[in-house]
TrEMBL record:
Residues 124-218 form the OmpR/PhoB-type domain. This is Response regulator. The keyword Transcription regulation applies. The modification 4-aspartylphosphate is found at D51. PROSITE patterns: OMPR_PHOB, RESPONSE_REGULATORY. SMART domains: REC, Trans_reg_C. It comes from Paracoccus shanxieyensis. One of its GO terms (biological process) is regulation of DNA-templated transcription. Keywords: DNA-binding, Phosphoprotein, Transcription, Transcription regulation, Two-component regulatory system.
Amino acid sequence: MRTLLVEDDPRIAEDLTRALTASGFLVESATDGETAWFRGGTEHYDLIVLDLNLPRLDGLTILKRWRNEGCESPVLILTARGGWTERVEGIDAGADDYLPKPFRMEELIARARALVRRAGGRSTGQQQFGRLAVDLNRMSASIDGIPVKVTPLEFRLIAHLALNRDRVVPPTELLERLYGDDDAREANALEAIVARLRRKLGPGIIGTRRGFGYYLEQDG
């Protein structure tokens, strides 16, 4: 779940990155408003976590520009402004959720997951694909009710396929979700992860449409 974190406080940004990464999010960061506006407007993110108090361009201005430009990524606002008028202003500007500081990291993660699920058209974190069950809340997978041990990278791949269950996902998109801008974005790296998952999950779970990409079998 590719996430843009927009936060100019290094300590807060580090804590948020650590927590989101541990929960299966692939985090990319921006520390000023102009950079955030450009990245959010030109790249696709499954989630944007946006602080309002930013240098060069404030968060509400960025959010309004994104929405006017057609950016549909779910946005979770973080701010020290906790009054109801500020919350209304943020929602009116196009925010999907609003979390005032200070906050519990567990609540932020729960809200982030909920926004990603809603954006993917899913009302629940539990997804069933034949013998495979994927729990987006607990970041777990099981076959016939038996838990399968997967790495965070493997789960990110399964989760993205689950959230896009109605289409074939191209390799380039999966690589972007798994590695972001990392140099490891190579096709053979993706093939290795898929092969490893197929050994763990068994046959008939991850399907391939040659030349197009991967998908989860609905009746696997």
